[in-house]
Amino acid sequence: LRRWEVWYVAGGSAHVALLGVFCLAAFALTDDPFARLASFSITTAYLVGTPGRSFASDLLVNAQIVSAGIPMLASLMIAGPAYWFIILFVLLPFLLALKTISTRLRGIFMSAVLRARDLSHLANRFDTALNNMPQGLAMFEPDGQITVSNERLLSLLQLPPEALNDGVTFDTLLNTCTQTGMVEQISAADLSQNLRMNLNVSPRGEWILNMADGRSVAFKLQAIDSGGGVILAEDVTERIRAQASISYLARYDSLTDLPNRHSFREHVQGVLNSARLLSAALMFIDLDQFKQVNDTLGHVLGDKLLWSVSQRLRLVIGPAGMVARFGGDEFVIFQDFYDAREDAAQLASLLIQQMSEPFDIEEHKLVIGASIGIALTPDEGGNVDDLLRDADLALYRAKAEGRGTFRFFEGQMQVQARARRDIEKDLRDALAHNELELHYQPIYDLSAKRYMVCEALIRWKHPQRGMIPPSEFIPIAEEMGLIWEIGSWVLHQACRECANWPPDVNVAVNISAMQFRRGNVMTPVRQALREAGLKPNRLEVEITESALLQDLNTTRLVLHQLRDIGVGVSLDDFGTGYSSLSYLQSLPFNKVKIDRSFLQGLDRDSRALTLLRGITRLSIDLGMSVVMEGVETAEQLALVADAAQVSEVQGYFFSRPLPADQLLLLLRRQTKSLVA
Ligand code: C2E
Ligand code: MG
Ligand code: MG
């Protein structure tokens, strides 16, 4: 372009210069006025067109003015002083005007060109922005015609570019969508009505259009002050899916796909609130042995078992009731019955039977069971939380009564639960507040004719409730995990006390089954003996059959360790549990303490006596001595002493459990009388 400009300038200037020379020749070589006038006028006329033709090039304008102006000036100079006047007042201003007009024209032209360029830049940028935004956009006039839109809008609606003809409205676009089958007619109509109605409402909402291909597109509307508005469209499929899955997760248990606690509560409360009379039951189901399966075979298998359980429950309940999982191995059922008490009992039996059938899971035949607590809906109204609490209490009772069974809620369960909660609350502090104390019950040795062992029995002197017997708080201490602390306190206290007694009187201490299960009975026993300076053979440990049931191997190991250091071991409450004779044979007991329930009916029934005789005979043959518990009368004593070879007797007939100081007096008296 630059090179061409040079050529163009050179040619253009040469052309004008020729006219100038023509002018000069007419003035210099002739006196012909026509020649002079013609040449001068032609050159001037030609020059007049210069700004129009050549304003764009400053160089060309200058070159032409100079190349014509100089010969013209020279011509007039030659023509004589009369023409100089023309030079001054016509020719010079004319040339100057040419130059000024050209410069001005170029300025106007340049700014127009630059503005056009800027505009097209702006338009390009706007286009890029419009077509690269994630939303589809349509801007429309008050009459509905779309004036600006982007490609994204077309791709969201799956429309071809032709769909956006001049004068198209948003409604027409939606119509095309219904024709292609991408949008249902009714949803399209709904959307366009919503958009129209909400144009002048604020705040405007968001409207979702469900497309035939499963996508969801959200539309938003923004009114423009000068009329018309902007519609923004966005693909919200993921968001809608996430919302759906969040609300599913919030309502269903992910492992079993059963409703969870939240939706169960909502459903049941809804039913309870409905005015109709209900005869429904809420059942709390707890799987027996599930924890063992989980612990021994792992969580993956445990999860599969829970899934199978949920399937079985669903099958039994069917569409008639609602089954939910509350987490862990807790399932809940709510069902409306014709006669709730009778039908629920039947259903519970069926469920327990179904849950006891083996589950086949990955080559394992898993046998579990279920306990069920049932709460019936009140005659009117009712609260789901109360029902849940009642069913839970009933479940607690069912479990306590041996599992694999069901119980209905009864009012007094709540009273008991409250009392229990109170005990739990206070028991934590009982040790720290010195509220626990030991009483001692002497055990009479029939052959030595004196007391040779005293059993330590714990008591809780509650500041408000008075004396609480161990049967009421030991099971709670076991459940709360306080039994280790309490048990070791009992050992220390009993050994310390025994150290004050005559050296031939031993102390017997009850050890809970839970203490054995942890397997660390030895540590507190050794510590207690060492601290009290007591010989191990003055301590006897009593355990009940239930301790043996828990974990026979650990218990056997601990019993042997106790025997090894010289501590005596007694089997307590024999005859109340499984009374398996094999325990007597396989475990290293020194003594068997026969439970006082054996004495009931002993006077009259000779069969009971035969049984007692058999047990004592067997025990003695196995190298154990026999203690008879709970002897209250002289007749009982006579029977026991004569008929069976019982070596020791314990019971109110001899002495009730006594506080430490009273027992000490009793033992001193005994020593004195012996000496005497
Ligand atoms: P146990 O070891 O069989 O204790 C004997 C229970 O029978 C004691 O009840 C005693 O008071 C009672 N008894 C004794 N002679 C007679 C009698 O002639 N007639 C009647 N009706 N009862 C008699 P207690 O003190 O209420 O203890 C109950 C159970 O609590 C004990 O049974 C024992 O298993 C447990 N226990 C007591 N103290 C402790 C302890 O320190 N630790 C643990 N783990 N358990 C304890
Ligand atoms: Mg005992
Ligand atoms: Mg006993």
Can you characterise this structure?
This protein has 676 residues and is an alpha/beta fold. The chain has 25 helices and 22 strands. The strands form 4 sheets. Strands 13-14-16-17-18-19-20-21 form an 8-stranded mixed β-barrel, surrounded by 4 helices. Strands 2-1-5-4-3 form a 5-stranded antiparallel beta sheet, sandwiched between helices. The protein has a 5-stranded mixed beta sheet with strand order 7-8-6-11-12, with helices on both faces. α22 links the parallel β18 and β19. The longest helix has 52 residues. The site of one magnesium ion has 4 residues, from loops. Ligand C2E binds next to β14, α16, α17 and β18.
What is the compact description of this entry?
By secondary structure, this protein is α/β, with parallel strands linked by helices. The protein is built from 25 helices and 22 strands.
